[in-house]
């Protein structure tokens, strides 16, 4: 990348600037990284230019989804989801897998993505004013939300297995 050239946060990775000249060698390296899922436990060695943490994005998006789509009365679940997300980010930093700026950028990007999407989805006036402008600036959003005429209610229904487990536990304790 042009903007940043940070080394990997771990000291065990050898980051010599190797030049891969041929297209075949580049394709082979890209295939190895793809098949190894980018993880060092599969023998993948990449150097620098992380810029954001995908693990942090996953933690933050999962936390936002839990807080948005679970009932408001589930305070303990909301609190624990943030505790787990923050703990996960701490261990990413403690394990020297990312720099703190990577974590911060991932947090900002993923939380803004979640909030902007839900703002657009819950506010239909954006579509009513200028549909063509929305299609140009937000093509994916326009495609996925095209047939939705109004903001959908945030309804929560426990999965059937949870309801059955709750009934079974209540019957055990009532005896």
TrEMBL record:
Q: What is this protein called?
A: Sphingomyelin synthase-like domain-containing protein
Q: Where in the cell is it found?
A: Membrane
Q: TM spans, by residue?
A: 74-93, 99-119
UniProt keywords, alphabetically: Lipid metabolism, Membrane, Sphingolipid metabolism, Transferase, Transmembrane, Transmembrane helix
Q: Which family does the record assign? A: Belongs to the sphingomyelin synthase family.
- Carries keyword RNA-binding? no
Q: What is the lineage of its organism?
A: Eukaryota, Metazoa, Spiralia, Gnathifera, Rotifera
User: Which species expresses this protein natively?
Assistant: Adineta steineri
Q: Which domain of life is it from?
A: Eukaryota
* GO BP: ceramide biosynthetic process
A single Pfam family it belongs to is PAP2_C
């Amino acid at each position: 990348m042009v903007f940043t050239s940070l080394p990997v946060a771990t000291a065990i990775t050898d980051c010599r600037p190797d030049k891969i000249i041929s297209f075949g060698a580049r394709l082979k390296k890209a295939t190895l990284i793809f098949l190894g899922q980018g993880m060092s436990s599969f023998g993948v060695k990449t150097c620098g230019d992380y810029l954001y943490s995908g693990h942090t994005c996953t933690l933050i998006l999962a936390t936002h989804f839990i807080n948005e789509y679970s009932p408001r009365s589930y305070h303990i679940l909301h609190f624990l989801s943030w505790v787990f997300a923050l703990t996960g980010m701490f261990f990413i930093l403690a394990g020297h897998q990312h720099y703190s700026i990577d974590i911060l950028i991932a947090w900002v990007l993923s939380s803004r993505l979640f909030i902007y999407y839900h703002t657009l989805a819950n506010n239909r006036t954006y579509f009513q004013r200028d549909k063509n402008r929305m299609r140009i600036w937000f093509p994916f959003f326009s495609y996925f939300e095209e047939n939705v005429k109004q903001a959908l209610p945030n309804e929560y229904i426990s999965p059937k297995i949870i309801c059955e487990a709750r009934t079974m536990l209540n019957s055990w304790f009532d005896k």
